[in-house]
Amino acid sequence: FYHQVAATLRGVSKVLIIGPGVAKDHFFAHVSVHDKEVARRVVGMETVDHPTDNQIAAYALRYFNRKTG
């Protein structure tokens, strides 16, 4: 599954990994070994407990606005 997610993210300029638990850590560990292009584009990892699609979009907008000024 992680290979498929990483393949989808190739070419994306910035990646914010969010979610509950440790799956985000496992995904980052996976791309760090198997897809260094994607790993280099990860700009943050945040714990967010079971967000809705709208909450994910709002969180990403706030995060990138804060990080990029």
What does this structure look like?
The protein is α+β, with helices and mostly antiparallel strands and 69 residues long. 61% of the residues lie in helices and 16% in strands. A two-stranded parallel ribbon has the order 1-2. The chain starts with a helix and ends with a helix. The model has no long low-confidence stretch (mean pLDDT 88).
Structure, briefly:
61% of the residues lie in helices and 16% in strands. It has 69 residues and is an alpha+beta fold.
Essential attributes:
single chain; 69 residues; two-stranded parallel sheet; alpha+beta
Mean pLDDT equals 88
H/E series: HEHHEH
> Helical segment tally?
4
- How far the N terminus sits from the C terminus, by CA atoms, comes to 34 Å
